[in-house]
User: Which sequence fits this backbone?
């Protein structure tokens, strides 16, 4: 059952509209609708808000501003993870970035709220903000440490000395732009007051974090906050925490004692949620003529909002990727008055590998060496910075298998040599590595007298397939057909999890469900073997087999439902859990990652420099696969985002206002169907016994890791033009193209 | 979105009368207008829905021209066998525009009056002379990668986003207009859209209440027709640069040529200079380059859009090569 390409169990509900998303719930009275008003300056102070025009606008019930918002809890830095911290909103007249909420207008209809929102007159005392990342590099500072206490900087050996002795060197600067998560479903919620309690239907990735953040902000007992997140239309990091929309709806619902809904518009999603920080990265590589690296240095500078520090761990993948005796990674932050950074899919690896794997391609070109071979020559035997063994590293297999399947041998090493009509055609390769993490997650499995197992966890399914994989894990764990398993997720009353994010959701929750099933099997066997009415009475349970809804020992068999009916008609339940990786010895003793190799073929129009993907393949090593279909979909989705990162995405800040200019999906470009002709993801058979009992590792982010670099390297192979300022767009390639000829 | 009233027009003159009232405007597919209303960039108090008026037919006229009803869907016109055979440049331009869903909904008349996609036009917190006359142009000195390189002014550097209109430009289309007083006039497409000057909010010669009822395509000129659109992604993006060309050759010499650019100006940019530089000259790259130089002689970049000038030259040259090869 585990591993099969089972169709999504929630698929029929989703395609028929039967799956209820946060904004679509109806609970209690007719809801009111809130519309957020965003700041039109990037830095400064609100000196006055005139709401008289709003209050006389039809249907308006409430205008919340910093003048009448309730007191709120502050961000408590002793709470270890940002997503659980308070998110005070409208808590002061200070403006920390363009688009920050300055008011919420609540009205009887969405249209009335939106119309009235335009009538809020806000006066500002604007100050000169810092918006220009490139111009503020002199203000860079070193953060204390990264998430989980990982050091911000590392050094092994002597990089400068290594580079001096290296026969071939690469020393280049790269930049990556602001990028946005932009899920299909916007941040959206319905908050329903229920006595002193709040029921919060919200679109989030971590229910426990949402509950904690709402409670901390509104200074409530977390037990009074009930979060419901049954379905999520994509998160990609932007919903790891709740933002202003949920806090504002909750404040309004409490003030009015009415249900209040708030959703952001697409434009607001570019100004008041979060962004992947922009970066400047220097990569220095030194190698011997045979390709062996003697030095690797990856120095990263990224923006952070001045008031809320966020550090994307962009240099960390480099610490484990290739062998080299002399190594250095560093992390610096430039404080700006720009939207706050938060995690976006594959935080760290996505911008880091885009750059490092471009630099490795530059080195291969400088060496005159095949870039697949160069990577294989630098395969480490142990993690080169931590000195610990890898749990299950198959990067070389991914590279070899991918090269074989892709037809890599047809690549012409000399750039700009392959033509197909007006297209310059190039091939590119890049490696993928993504750290595997584990966090505390609980799940309960209850078997009813009807023989149906119900799995409960506050874990979320953000479109990734959690409902489906947990159905499979529970079905296998209890020997049930999948239609006898029901998975219930996304309620704060269920056992807590760390949700979906960091590629750890599947590993955490499937392991917890597996443990719960193991415990439940023990309970069932104990009940049956001690029950004189059971055909299994007195038998040795060591050889018990669970299959088809029954348990058998030496030819004797009984249906699970009957054991439950007789012994505990209210149902038999067991819990399973995982713990934080710092409490799990394997995570200290081994370097646990997933791996992959991307191969891309692009065409570049010889006249216009239009760049189009022609085909792409990824081969991945992810441990054991839980569901071949949902896993492949996730990997392909990540790869497409890599294409997007290389060729399309760029949030542009207006240096005068500090706001993002291209605030819709017609102007913030991502690939459309026509941009992705042929793409495939292949997963190697695997089982990482160091990761967890199921041998499963996360793969939600692996697909994007390095994918953009394969595309960028293919553009270089096609044209001979190396663009180090992402994304690679027409104007950056055009000057390097030869003059058009007949 | 401001509250508004709505009526579905039942006859053409009545629709014009209704739309000439203050605050009233026509709506057809609504693919652009509704977005603008949500942002309160357009704030009509009354909508006159003309999408179901009997103006969607494509008819052949006695003089060999084709009359395209203004309410015909973009997708229907693109698929019309007469358009595909005799006016392929128009069919190509239409299918290069927007997305399948939008083309199904958008009308020919609406396409002609769609507003610019300058991001500052859509950002009500930014200055924009087109949206709010006298408030300045934030695109100048701002993010202006997609902006005009020809015919712009100190007041506005926005571009016209239409592909269809660029093709109509080389087809010498005429726009048929019906006024509220029931008078009919025809305007050459070259005269229909205006350059920004110091009144960028006035984009066409349409009068209040005047309705686009049809587009008339004269019999096609000889030669091969081509539309080439250049953009960052393969679909659903406005042109960075586009070229519509009709080229006829006779024993290696260009006997006639029509050329227009999209994405470079506040209106479809027909280049008489380029046409003069092509006509009577040998069909060679040297000729095309000379024509491209001429066409872009007065082009001025804003910094981020400088590349469009060279891109337009290159796109023209390649389009001419292809058109001349097959003509």
Assistant:
């Amino acid at each position: 059952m585990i591993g099969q390409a089972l169709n999504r169990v929630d698929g029929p509900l989703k395609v028929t509209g039967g799956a209820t998303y946060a904004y679509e719930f109806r609970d209690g009275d007719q809801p009111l609708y809130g519309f957020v008003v965003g700041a039109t300056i990037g830095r400064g102070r609100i000196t006055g808000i005139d709401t008289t025009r709003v209050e006389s606008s039809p249907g308006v019930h409430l205008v919340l501003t910093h003048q009448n918002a309730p007191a709120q809890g502050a961000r408590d830095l002793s709470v270890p993870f940002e997503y659980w911290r308070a998110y005070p909103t409208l808590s002061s007249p200070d403006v920390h970035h363009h688009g920050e909420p300055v008011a919420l207008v609540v009205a009887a209809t969405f249209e009335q709220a939106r119309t009235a929102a335009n009538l809020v007159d806000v006066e500002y005392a604007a100050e000169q903000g810092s918006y220009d990342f490139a111009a503020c590099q002199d203000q860079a500072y070193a953060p204390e440490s990264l998430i989980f206490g990982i050091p911000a900087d590392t050094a092994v050996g002597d990089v400068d000395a290594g580079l001096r002795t290296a026969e071939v060197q690469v020393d280049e600067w790269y930049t990556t732009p602001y990028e946005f998560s932009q899920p299909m479903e916007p941040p959206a919620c319905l908050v329903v007051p229920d006595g002193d309690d709040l029921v919060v239907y919200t679109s989030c990735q971590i229910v426990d974090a949402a509950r904690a953040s709402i409670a901390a902000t509104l200074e409530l007992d977390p037990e009074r906050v009930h979060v419901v997140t049954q379905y999520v239309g994509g998160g990609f990091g932007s919903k790891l925490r709740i933002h202003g929309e949920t806090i504002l709806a909750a404040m309004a619902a409490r003030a009015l004692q009415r249900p209040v809904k708030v959703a952001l518009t697409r434009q607001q999603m570019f100004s008041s949620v979060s962004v992947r920080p922009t970066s400047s990265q220097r990569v220095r590589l030194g190698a011997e003529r045979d390709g062996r690296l003697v030095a690797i240095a990856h120095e990263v500078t990224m923006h952070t909002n001045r008031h809320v520090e966020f550090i994307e761990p962009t240099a960390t993948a480099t610490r484990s990727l290739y062998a080299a005796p002399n190594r250095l990674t560093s992390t610096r932050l430039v404080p700006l008055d720009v939207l706050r950074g938060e995690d976006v899919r594959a935080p760290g690896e996505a911008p880091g590998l885009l750059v490092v794997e471009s630099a490795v391609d530059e080195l291969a070109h400088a060496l005159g060496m095949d870039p697949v071979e160069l990577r294989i020559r630098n395969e480490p035997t142990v993690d080169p910075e931590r000195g610990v063994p890898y749990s299950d590293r198959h990067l070389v297999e991914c590279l070899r298998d991918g090269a074989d399947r892709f037809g890599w041998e047809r690549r012409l090493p000399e750039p700009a040599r392959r033509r197909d009509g007006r297209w310059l055609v190039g091939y590119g390769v890049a490696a993928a590595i993504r750290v595997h993490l584990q966090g505390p997650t609980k799940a309960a499995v209850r078997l009813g007298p009807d023989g149906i197992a119900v799995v409960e966890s506050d874990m979320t399914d953000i479109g990734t397939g959690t409902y489906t994989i947990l159905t499979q894990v529970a079905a296998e764990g209890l020997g049930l057909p999948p239609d006898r398993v029901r998975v219930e997720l996304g309620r704060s009353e269920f056992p807590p999890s760390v949700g979906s994010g960091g590629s750890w959701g599947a590993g955490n929750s499937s392991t917890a469900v597996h443990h719960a099933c193991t415990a439940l099997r023990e309970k069932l066997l104990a009940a049956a073997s001690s029950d004189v009415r059971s055909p299994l009475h007195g038998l040795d349970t060591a050889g018990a087999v669970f299959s088809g809804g029954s348990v058998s020992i030496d030819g004797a068999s009984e249906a699970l439902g009957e054991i439950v009916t007789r012994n505990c008609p209210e149902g038999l339940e067991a819990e399973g859990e995982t713990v934080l990786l710092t409490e799990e010895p394997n995570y200290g003793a081994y370097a646990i990652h997933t791996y992959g190799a991307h191969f891309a073929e692009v065409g570049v129009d010889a006249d216009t420099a239009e760049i189009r993907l022609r085909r792409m393949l990824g081969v991945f090593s992810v441990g054991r696969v839980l569901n071949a279909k949902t896993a492949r979909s996730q990997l392909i989705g990540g790869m497409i985002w890599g294409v997007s990162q290389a060729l399309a995405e760029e949030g542009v800040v207006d240096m005068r206002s500090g706001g993002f200019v291209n605030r819709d999906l017609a102007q913030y470009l991502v690939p459309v169907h026509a941009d992705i002709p042929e793409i495939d993801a292949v997963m190697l058979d695997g089982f990482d016994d160091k990761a967890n009992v199921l041998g499963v590792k996360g793969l939600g982010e692996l697909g994007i890791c390095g994918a953009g670099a394969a595309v960028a390297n293919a553009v270089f192979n096609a044209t001979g033009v190396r663009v180090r300022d992402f994304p690679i767009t027409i104007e950056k390639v055009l000057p390097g193209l030869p003059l058009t000829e007949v | 979105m401001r509250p508004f009233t709505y009526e579905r027009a039942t006859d053409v003159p009545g629709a014009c009368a209704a739309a000439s009232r203050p605050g009233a405007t026509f709506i057809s597919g609504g693919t652009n207008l509704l977005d603008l209303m949500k942002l309160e960039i357009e704030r009509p108090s009354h909508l006159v829905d003309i999408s179901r008026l009997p103006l969607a037919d494509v008819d052949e006229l006695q003089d060999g021209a084709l009359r395209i009803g203004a309410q015909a869907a973009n997708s229907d016109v693109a698929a019309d066998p007469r358009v595909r055979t005799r006016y392929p440049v128009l069919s190509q331009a239409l299918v290069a525009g927007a997305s399948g869903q939008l083309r199904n909904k958008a009308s020919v008349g609406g396409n002609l009056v769609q507003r610019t996609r300058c991001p500052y036009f859509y950002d009500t917190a930014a200055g924009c002379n087109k949206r709010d006359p006298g408030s300045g142009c934030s695109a100048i000195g701002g993010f202006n990668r997609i902006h005009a390189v020809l015919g712009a002014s100190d007041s506005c550097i926005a571009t016209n986003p239409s592909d269809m209109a660029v093709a109509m430009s080389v087809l010498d289309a005429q726009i048929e207009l019906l006024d509220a007083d029931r008078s009919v006039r025809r305007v050459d497409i070259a005269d229909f859209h205006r350059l920004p000057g110091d009144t960028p909010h006035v984009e066409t010669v349409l009068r209040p209440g005047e309705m686009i009822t049809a587009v008339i395509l004269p019999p096609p000129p000889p030669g091969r027709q081509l539309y080439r659109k250049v953009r960052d992604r393969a679909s659903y993006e406005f042109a960075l640069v586009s070229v519509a060309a009709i080229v006829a050759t006779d024993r290696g010499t260009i006997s006639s040529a029509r050329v227009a650019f999209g994405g470079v100006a506040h209106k479809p940019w027909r280049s008489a200079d380029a046409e003069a530089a092509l006509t009577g000259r040998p069909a060679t790259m040297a000729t095309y380059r000379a024509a491209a130089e001429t066409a872009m002689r007065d082009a001025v970049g804003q910094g981020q859009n400088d590349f469009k000038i060279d891109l337009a030259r290159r796109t023209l040259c390649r389009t001419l090569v292809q058109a001349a090869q097959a003509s």
Remarks:
- The two ends of chain A are 59 Å apart (CA to CA).
